[in-house]
Amino acid sequence: MPTIDDVARAAGVSASTVSYVLSGKRTISGPTQERVRQAIADLGFRPHAGARALASARTSVIALMAPLRAGVDVNVIMQFVTGVVRRAREFDHDVLLLTQDDMAGIERVSHGSMVDAVIVMDVEADDERLPALRGLKQPAVLIGLPGDERGLTCVDLDFEEVGRLALRHLTDLGHRRVALIGPPPSVLERHTSYAERMLRGYRAQAEAAGLEVLVQPCEGTAVGARAATLAVLEAMPDLTGVVVHNESALPTVLSTLRREGRRVPDDVSLVAVCPAEVALSQSIALTAIDIPAQEIGGAAVDLVMDLLTPTPPPRPGGAAAPATAAAAPVEGTDPTGSPTGTGPTRATVAPHLFPPHVTVRETTAPPRRTPA
Amino acid sequence: MPTIDDVARAAGVSASTVSYVLSGKRTISGPTQERVRQAIADLGFRPHAGARALASARTSVIALMAPLRAGVDVNVIMQFVTGVVRRAREFDHDVLLLTQDDMAGIERVSHGSMVDAVIVMDVEADDERLPALRGLKQPAVLIGLPGDERGLTCVDLDFEEVGRLALRHLTDLGHRRVALIGPPPSVLERHTSYAERMLRGYRAQAEAAGLEVLVQPCEGTAVGARAATLAVLEAMPDLTGVVVHNESALPTVLSTLRREGRRVPDDVSLVAVCPAEVALSQSIALTAIDIPAQEIGGAAVDLVMDLLTPTPPPRPGGAAAPATAAAAPVEGTDPTGSPTGTGPTRATVAPHLFPPHVTVRETTAPPRRTPA
DNA sequence: CGCGGAGGCCGAATCGGTTCGACCACGGCA
DNA sequence: TGCCGTGGTCGAACCGATTCGGCCTCCGCG
User: Fold this and answer.
1) Which of A139, A309, A319, A350 is the least buried, fewest Cβ under 10 Å from its Cβ?
2) Pair A188, A238 in one domain
3) CATH number at residue B181
4) Is the CB of A21 under 7 A from strand C?
């Protein structure tokens, strides 16, 4: 493994010059750059990550805490994960994967200076990790929305709106007898952020519309899903619409409805809340509010990068911000160029929420008029 | 962030003493150790990972290449991943996640000295990454079995035996008309190691038993699985047994059989090849050859640690090997204490193959006598 | 009583980069 | 012609650990 000194020698320059060629932090003449780059290529030089981290206090690694908790669909988790990894790579960063949901992992990699930042998934309403996260020397970004997000940066789909929208789509079609098949009890008991928010929005919308609300938690197993579907059918025999917020249950919900003689969408309309891939891999293409998991993961990385770039001193005659290329959702403060001063250390920016959309596929239709 | 010097000062010793207390590589007196540990606790000292990597040439990080390829079930991948992460943590190591399947990622982290070793998943029969892997300065462990594993360390379930065993279980029960619903075409076209090996074993066993072999590739989607099931039923209407080696297809295969009037296991027996969790979360508990994905992932880490511990010079009067606590499968050369000399740099050790077992649950039974 | 050896600790070199201050040469301007 | 500014490069300090050689002390033994 050649070192920077080897490169310097080969190029006939000093080590610092090589470093500056690499980082671009000082101007180096064209010919010199050329020689240096050539030497780097010839020798196959790759800077030693540890040495770099030691000297620059930057590791080019971000930690991703993706706890595999009971009740959360692995497919969805992996969507987030790949979104994060992909986007991180575009910023020349790697991802250290933490799967334990305790704080110890975070503290270890943080205090040990193994990472530049932390992204945390599966946030709960009153997450115990919050205070520790706030105390980190590295910035932290949450995927999800805890009850108190002060001092933290958050990004997620706007699940409250998801709840409203899902129901509204059905009522707009004319459905009045609707049930929600939700996440597993364990997820709710944990007060998982997305589940509670979705539920809140759904309930609010239902009450506003004067509908009876029927909410049925549901295990992700086949038997659990079957039981939940039957329970809903029994509690509301005249139901014509279902919202399903539970990826693992979808196949069984679908087949159970069928077995019970309810055709989809003729007899009952179904709108799912899940990633598009999941909606499309079912026995029938699901009308759904797609969870853009990959995008959200990517957005989390964008936020990390924002937090990592030293706040550009707000000089008015600005060469633009160094192109973080953040395709941020339309929300919160304007991504580029803060309107006025940078504000109180950007700690109070609004959470970045992606607006949800209904994608109509093959499982929703107006209720049949006959029973009316 | 306190440094080792701060600790040394607080404890009234030199920095090297602190280091030796931490590493245990030299004897330090009891009282001194006590003072040092106290100082560490008081200050909340955590060694700087970069500095440590620089000085010791060890990062305590291992790279895991887990490409998310079309056709491989995410649940299974994640089982491996968590197995790796968990076991790595037991050895005080962290995991850097690579999801691209190109070699660039590996080379980057390897040459940059970001990791101590590499674990590679989803190996193909003639994997193009092999030569590069052999050239790495860090050890590499494959989960899977390429055609030519010389110079590489491999671990996996013995999928050839899986193929034989699955079929044998059915024939032992008396079934003679059996079909295999396999992985998606894309997986086979890539010559994915596990798929080909399973198929080979299955074919061999079928021929040995003089059975007609019917193999049906199958997409992981609901429509794909339905199509595959119907195809098999049409090609072999009198079939009484199915082997399914395709996690994502299982729910639909099951429901399709049912819809076609074939009761499981009364009319047709089904044995799956999948992780136990998957077998148990179906509408009926599947008789299956469980893929111990977590264990295999853990075993990969064990192998990494073996490769990482400097080969204990084979002195006969041995204090035992430093307890890597490897629960290795019963295979290959004896894990501890090589029978004779350490052999040619352990490059030629046999691949570590886990022996498969059939776990009988509720989907297999003898064929009904009536049609005979 | 003297010597050898082991136990326990320290000092300094080292790992491989980054970064700041300084230096040099050259061009423009007065 | 002299001075200043600037673009381009170098040298050296520094980041925070690990590790090797050496030194001192104390004990045991002859």
Assistant:
1) A319
2) yes
3) 3.40.50.2300
4) no
Residue B59 sits at the vertex; the CA angle it makes with B55 and B60, to the nearest 5 degrees, is 135
Identity of the amino acid at B2: P
Task: Report the residue from B47, B95, B222 with minimal CB separation from A112.
Answer: B47
Residue A271 located in a structural domain: yes
Residue A91 exposure: Cα atoms within 13 Å on the Cβ side: 29
Same-domain check for residues B141 and B171: no
Residue B171 distance to chain A (closest CA, Å): 29
Range of the domain at B270: 159-291
The Å distance, CA of B94 to C1' of C13, is 30
Our count of domains for chain A comes to 3
Print burial letters for A135-167: b (CB count within 10 Å at least 16), e (below 16).
ebebbbbbbbbbeebeebbbbbbbbbbbbbbbb
Rounded percentage of chain A residues whose pLDDT exceeds 70: 88
Q: State the alpha helices, DSSP H only, in chain B.
A: 4-11, 15-23, 30-43, 49-56, 74-90, 103-111, 129-135, 159-173, 185-189, 193-208, 222-235, 250-259, 276-280, 293-308
**Residue A248 per-residue DSSP state:** G
Check if the beta carbon of residue B80 is closer than 8 Å to that of residue B297. Answer: yes
pLDDT tens column, B34-43 = 999 999 999 9
SS3 B96: strand
Instruction: Tell me, yes or no, whether A286 and A184 share the same domain.
Output: yes
pLDDT of residue A349: 56
Across residues B140-169, what is the average pLDDT?
95
From CA A93, how far away is CA B358, in angstroms rounded? 43
- A288/A328 same-domain check: no
Residues B213-223: tens digit of each pLDDT: 999 999 999 99
pLDDT at A230 over 60: yes
Percent of chain B's residues with pLDDT above 90: 83
Tens of pLDDT, residue by residue over B192-230, are 999 999 999 999 999 999 999 999 999 999 999 999 999
Say if residue A187 is in the same domain as residue A110.
no
CB A43 within 8 Å of CB A97 = no
- CA distances for A29 relative to A7, A35, A39, A42, angstroms: 17, 10, 16, 20
| Block residue for tokens 């204490």 | B337
Whether residue A1 and residue B100 make contact (CB cut-off 8 A), yes or no, is no
Same domain, B167 and B286: yes
Return left, alpha or beta for B302; rule: phi > 0 is left, psi -120 to 50 is alpha, else beta: alpha
Using a 7 Å CB cutoff, list residues 132-151 of A near strand C: none
Q: Where are the alpha helices (DSSP H) in chain A?
A: 4-11, 15-23, 30-43, 49-56, 74-90, 103-111, 129-135, 159-173, 185-189, 193-208, 222-235, 250-259, 276-280, 293-308
